[in-house]
Prior knowledge:
Number of strands: 7
Number of domains: 1
Helix content: 25-40%
InterPro entries: Type_III_TA_endoRNase
CATH architecture: Roll
Number of helices: 4
Strand content: 25-35%
CATH class: Alpha Beta
Radius of gyration: 15 Å
Structural class: alpha+beta
Largest sheet: 7 strands, antiparallel
Shape: globular
Distance between the termini: 35 Å
CATH topology: Thiol Ester Dehydrase, Chain A
Amino acid sequence: MSSQYKRKIKVVTIKQSFYELFSENHEIMRIMGQEAKDRPCLILLKMKYKGNLHTFAIPFRSNIGNAPSNTYFPLPKRAKTKDRRKHGLHYSKMFPITEKYMLAYHMGGDFQEELVMAYIERNIKQIYSEAAQYLKNYETGQHELFCVDIDDVLIKLNYQ
């Protein structure tokens, strides 16, 4: 049985058609040349942004560089994580998403993957709180130079 069915959290991938809504230099995590199934995202349902509730996808990233510690939730390193890099859920790369663009991500049952998912579940309140704080800061203009333009994503989603 896949761990997806016994987990409280939802992990999905994002359809390529979503990424195609954005220009090549957009800070949205692009998958150009890859299958969408290759990049899982943790979904935190119904986070408030500018007074409205939206579903946000927070990408798993294996090689976070010099990002401020309040812009990601650290996870145990993976084999793909390079020296002096971090593995984590990257808040500055999170974006609003709708069901239309979500694909199921089936956990492989890998031991390392299971440990990471259990760690996320144990810390989900902290992750939610930090992501919500990131959104509050973003609303007031306090964000990194290289972050997803949340307002632009919402505009594009509303026209689809």
